[in-house]
Amino acid sequence: MRDSDWEIINELFRNPNVSRAAAALFMTQPTLTKRLQHIERELGVRIAERTPKGLTFTPEGTYLAQRAAEHVEFVNQTFRGLEDLQRASRKAITIGSSYTFNKYNLWEVLEGYAEVGDPEVRFTVVNEQSDVLFRMVLDGNVDLAFVRGDHEGPVESILVDCTQAYLVYREPVATDELPLLPRIDFRTNQESTELLNSWWAERFTCDMPQGMSVGYIDFVWELVSQGKGYALCFVPANFENERGLYLHPLTRADGSPVVRRTWCVYPKAVPRRIPRASSATSAMTWPYRTARSSAPAASDDTRGDGGDVVIRSPARELVGLGYDSACTSARCPRAIRQSLQNDHVQGSK
User: What number of other Cβ atoms are within 10 A of residue 57's Cβ?
Assistant: First the structure.
């Protein structure tokens, strides 16, 4: 079970009304109901029964709620303790991360560092859009950042990931029908928007519909599953398609995939305040996972042949973290792989 599952049980027991509990958890009611049913199937017990007055917990559900409260308190105490240690330590690195990279990849990266780096180094993570993060790197407000898209400036850059763009819809749909269908827009960085606009301009003579703007990508997937419209977006490789959405990879007129690259960027002159890690060095492999049936069957050139591709950058220290080189392991289609080989980083951007 996930930590969020214990939070769901704890909140429902404290507030046995699905609508109010969903609001407190920043979830939609259908999503909360579906997740509760998944938890019951996983544990093989009935947690609560619906009544006109709300939810009534079963004996098994009451027991789980007690353990959930203990688990939530344990997690909260753990984070409070970590925050105290961070404040007490002078060894701190401020990392900027885009929202989706933070959700799907960043914590695995930090765990990988913890295995070979300085255990006393503490991280502070700032979540923002990639164009804002890049400016923060230039201004010295963060020590390094993981940003989506290509950015120009006086920084060192390490290529860490490439993400395929997809048409996301509730059911299969012909691409030519898109101008006539409602589109769901979301908050993203300028570089991602330009890539999607370029794809649209190649395929259609009309402008891309403005669409309903709903904030961040997680809300988009929920609205698409409800049939509110389609979305054009970059889908992480380890995205779990729990809603059974139709995902169609976007390709350009020449057949090449629409790909957004993710970079680790940091100033060429490393600030002195960044703590130097121990002498341990390692070629770092980013432990990305592949999606679980996240897309319909596709050709080898658009979905990949299943081989792991290691993209290595030139040997360099990663902002005082004690690495002499860094690389990424991701499942990339052959077309993406060739593009990355052609654009392989040589020195700094």
Answer: 18
Report CA Rg, the chain. 22
pLDDT band for position 92 (cuts 50, 70, 90): confident
Give the integer Cα–Cα distance in Å for 318 and 112.
Answer: 13
Distance CA 20, CA 246 (A): 31
For 65, residues 6+ apart whose C-beta sits below 8 A from its C-beta are 9, 10, 12, 13, 57
Residue type, 146: F
> What pLDDT does 180 receive?
92
- Do the beta carbons of residue 201 and residue 227 sit within 8 Å? no
272 DSSP assignment: T
Beta strands in 170-208 (DSSP E): 184-185
CA distances from 273 to 142, 143, 276, 321 (A): 11, 9, 9, 13
Count H helices, E strands: the chain?
Answer: 11, 14
Q: Could you report the per-residue pLDDT of 59-80, keeping only the tens digit for each?
A: 999 999 999 999 989 988 888 8
Q: Distance of CA 121 to CAs 82, 87, 115, 118, 305, Å?
A: 12, 11, 12, 6, 39
The tokens for 313 are 């950058």
| Alpha carbons 90 and 103: distance in angstroms, whole number | 27
pLDDT in tens, 98-128: 888 888 888 777 776 766 666 667 788 998 8
Q: What is the pLDDT of residues 159-207, one digit of tens each?
A: 888 889 999 999 999 999 999 999 999 888 788 889 999 999 999 999 9
Strand 325-331 to 283-284 pairing: parallel
Judge whether 98 and 146 are in contact, CB under 8 Å: yes
- Identify the DSSP state of 276: P
Closest to 57 measured CA to CA, from 9, 103, 115, 98: 9
